[in-house]
Amino acid sequence: MLGGYLVREHNGITLVGRIVETEAYLQNDPACHASRGMTERTRVMFGQPGLGYIYFTYGMHHCFNIVTNDEGIGEAVLIRALEPIKGTEAMYAIREKAKRDTDLLSGPGKLCQAFSLTRSENGVDLIESDLIFLEQGKLTKSEAVDVTSRVGITVAVDKPWRFFIKGNPFVSKGRPSSKETAP
DNA sequence: GGGAAGATGTTCT
DNA sequence: GAACATCTTCCCT
Fold first, then answer.
1. Is the CB of A95 under 7 A from strand C?
2. Are A45 and A54 in contact (CB under 8 A)?
3. Which has the closest alpha carbon to A65: A88, A86, A83, A42?
4. Angle A42-A80-A137 (CA atoms, 0-180°, nearest 5)?
5. Which of A9, A33, A107, A128 has the smallest set of CB atoms within 10 Å of its CB?
6. Predicted confidence (pLDDT) per residue in A11-69, tens digit
7. What is the CATH number of domain A5-141?
8. Where are chain A's structural domains?
9. How far is CA A106 from CA A7, A34, A155, in A?
10. Contact A8, A115 (CB under 8 A)
């Protein structure tokens, strides 16, 4: 999934971002919303692969996931950061706080705001939709994938399920949540 | 430049 | 009523 493109048509403007950072959430993973069974909120995660699962958290932020496993299995990949490719002017207009390109999409809450993804887009079919969909892309020769533990969680912090393009400036600044104790 | 805490609403116990 | 897959601001170094 890293290196692919997320395309969003909004108000007649095309926004494109390249996926540079993701996290995996599996069903038997305590940090995954679906680990405690299906609820009203996590229903989409148990749907067919290719759906977009969007939830609201911390009172002011949305997070965008892509459902990955078969129907009946609650697993998804969180999109944590995108590299702005197209429509950056519209992103700046929405995100007034952003001063540089690296401020626009470098975090799950930021990219949802810039792409205008809210709960009303929850459950969208990324394969059928003309408004939100994915395009294929791949890593260049000089790019490498790095892996760390995940960010912003309090359980299963030792699971190395955060994937990102090594050295890419648009990866979020969040540090892995595993406790790094001095040797 | 970096760490700590506040903001704020939905979901689940 | 507590927790939360975060972002921003404020204050310190």
1. yes
2. no
3. A42
4. 105
5. A128
6. 999 999 999 999 999 999 999 999 988 898 999 999 999 999 999 999 899 999 999 99
7. 3.10.300.10
8. 5-141
9. 16, 25, 23
10. yes
